[in-house]
Design goal:
- The structure holds two protein chains of two kinds.
- Chain A is of the alpha/beta class.
- Chain A has one domain: 3-Layer(aba) Sandwich (Rossmann fold), CATH 3.40.50.
- In chain A, the strands form two sheets. Chain A has a six-stranded mixed sheet with strand order 6-7-8-3-9-10, with helices on both faces. Chain A has a four-stranded antiparallel sheet with strand order 2-1-4-5, covered by helices on one side.
- In chain A, strand 9 and strand 10 form a beta hairpin.
- The two termini of chain A are 27 Å apart.
- Chain B is mainly alpha-helical.
- Chain B has one domain.
- Chain B has nine helices and no strands.
- In chain B, helix 6 packs antiparallel against helix 7.
- The longest helix of chain B is centred in the middle third of the chain and has 39 residues.
- Classes of the chains: A alpha/beta, B mainly alpha.
- At the A-B interface, strand 6 and helix 4 of A face helix 5 of B.
- The complex binds adenosine-5'-triphosphate (ATP) and magnesium ion.
Chain lengths: 266, 251
């Protein structure tokens, strides 16, 4: 087991290169005696889409929450544009630049769908009221949610709520977007649509994305870098093609799950 | 030890309230939020306040009629009813009823918003969750509690008149003139000061409990129930303690 973990392809370099927008160095986090993140280090390049993969319960959500400061961590550093963002006053530039898609959506349930889109726009206060309205409507349209704009989140299906959560995060044209399972619970067509939208918007506005997902095949297609978490450590960090080239069953079972299922049932 | 603990809790409660009022404009749409809060805190509590006020007045009129008759002082009924309502009963009962109706709703709503990460989402959008969610409620409490307390007093005095004069055949004219003579501006002052203080205390305590629902070692639905219970119990106690202190200071 240990031999496998140390079998990393690329050890992330300790000093971030200038093009790295966000870097996580030696992050450790435990809940009581349970150590969830043991030593997590990786870099997110400017304008890239980094997919974070890993089995359920390895601490992907905890990692994202630590990055934005929703959870305090025990040790390590988080750098944004080369500056430490460990404590609240220094975290402000990161928070200003980033949006977050929560795993359980965190929609404002006493506001309508349209209001949910307008709240982050108003908080920025950069656009005029009619421009905010137009922008929210546009993105709702692209997410096939325009008919629902006067409904409340509780009246939407699970997949619609997820799409609303993604739309709400993207409406402010953020520089960095942290997606915690943006496609969980979507049908294959909608799942593709969400990934397509993330990539298209990413090309338009050049944001940097950190995507936690269980859709390995899709992640391999859309991302520029794969970070694979296992047992609280980064077990792999590198390009999608390097990930695909991995022979180790630890990776291949996870990556080629359909073949693995077929084989085990044969 | 417990004293230091209580003091630090009081400190964080005051910081929370000051922060909420300071960042009240955060997130925009302040007028809409104020209107919604006025409806929740004020209009929705009208029925319960009116009913409790009416029956408090009726009972006071009844008791007063018989007790004062023992001393041959039946003519003092208006004085007794109006002063006890204005100085003591109306502020306390109205605030306790508001804690039960609006305070619980507030603690539960904020508790759910905490446990479903809505508060985290607001913070990440750069909106002060205290200011956006709690600020308007504190501000609205400053005028809704005094208004409802005044209403309580008026309905209560009318209740006293109903039981004393309409049902028990005392002279209505002398009842109302006794009321007019009894109430001075000092009494009205005391009534409104208490209402203001109780309003701020109730809303701040219930909001604080709901907002920090995750800090009591529970999660999910249980954290909401714990926060709601703590909110309403603590604010009821705080109302009575503050009542004693304000009375001692003002009398
Ligand atoms: N607030 C918490 N208190 C205690 N333990 C926690 C807490 N949050 C997460 N954990 C633990 O941390 C571990 C990682 O949780 P996390 O939610 O990050 O998993 P994940 O990788 O996102 O899984 P999934 O893919 O299923 O979402 C889990 O074992 C979980 O039990
Ligand atoms: Mg997760």
């Amino acid at each position: 087991m240990n031999a496998m973990v140390s079998d990393k392809i690329t050890t992330p370099d300790p000093i971030p290169a200038p093009e790295e927008l966000l870097s996580v160095q030696g992050l450790k986090k435990s809940f009581g005696t349970k150590q969830v993140l043991q030593d997590v280090s990786f870099h997110v390049p400017h304008g890239g889409i980094v997919a974070i993969l890993g089995r359920s319960g390895t601490g992907k959500s905890v990692l994202l929450r630590c990055i934005v400061g929703l959870l305090p961590y025990d040790e390590g550093q988080i750098l944004f544009r080369g500056k430490n963002v460990d404590t609240p006053p220094f975290r402000a530039p990161l928070l200003k630049a980033c949006s977050y898609v929560f795993q359980h959506n965190a929609l404002f349930d006493s506001s309508t769908v349209l209001e949910n889109m307008l709240i982050p726009l108003r908080a920025r206060g950069e656009l005029s009221e009619s421009a905010q309205f137009q922008k929210a409507k546009d993105l709702l349209g692209r997410m096939e949610l325009e008919d629902a704009s006067n409904r409340f989140p509780a009246e939407l299906s699970g997949g619609m709520q997820k799409r609303l959560a993604v739309a709400r995060a993207l409406v402010t044209d953020p520089e960095v977007v942290l997606f915690d399972e943006p496609t969980a619970g979507l049908d294959p067509i909608r799942r593709n649509a969400v990934f397509e939208m993330i990539v298209k918007l990413q090309r338009e506005s050049r944001f940097t994305a950190l995507v936690v997902t269980h859709d390995v095949q899709e992640a391999l297609i859309v991302s520029s870098r794969i970070v694979w978490l296992d047992a609280g450590c980064v077990a792999f960090s590198g390009t999608p093609s390097a990930f695909e080239a991995q022979e180790d069953p630890k990776f291949s079972l996870f990556r080629d799950n359909l073949q693995a299922l077929k084989q085990s049932l044969r | 030890m417990w004293f230091i603990n209580a003091l630090s809790k009081a400190g964080s409660l005051s910081c929370f309230s000051v922060l909420a009022l300071f960042h009240i404009r955060s997130g925009g749409t302040l007028p809409a939020r104020l209107i919604r809060t006025t409806y929740e805190l004020g209009i929705r509590c009208l029925p319960v306040i009116s009913i409790v006020a009416l029956f408090s007045g009726l009972v006071l009129g009844l008791q007063g009629h018989y007790v004062l008759a023992r001393f041959g002082a039946s003519g003092m009924l208006g004085t007794l009813v109006s002063l006890s309502l204005c100085r003591e009963l109306a502020p306390v009962l109205a605030a306790v009823m508001m804690a039960g109706q609006a305070g619980t709703a507030l603690a539960a709503e904020l508790g759910i918003q905490r446990s479903t990460e809505q508060i985290d989402a607001l913070e990440l959008m750069g909106i002060s969750a205290e200011g956006y969610l709690v600020g308007p409620r504190l501000l609205v409490a400053c005028f809704v509690f005094p208004v409802l307390t005044a209403l309580f007093t008026i309905v209560g005095i009318t209740g006293g008149w109903l039981s004393g004069c309409v049902l028990l055949n005392q002279d209505g004219h002398s009842y109302w003139s006794a009321v007019r003579l009894a109430i001075h501006s000092k009494d009205i002052n005391e009534c409104l000061t208490k209402a203001l203080a109780f309003g701020l205390l109730t809303v701040a305590l219930c909001a604080f409990q709901g907002f920090n629902a995750h800090l009591h070692g529970e999660a999910g639905a249980r954290s909401v129930s714990v926060a709601t219970v703590r909110g309403v119990v603590l604010s009821s106690i705080a109302i009575l303690v503050a009542d004693y202190l304000i009375t001692a200071l003002l009398v």
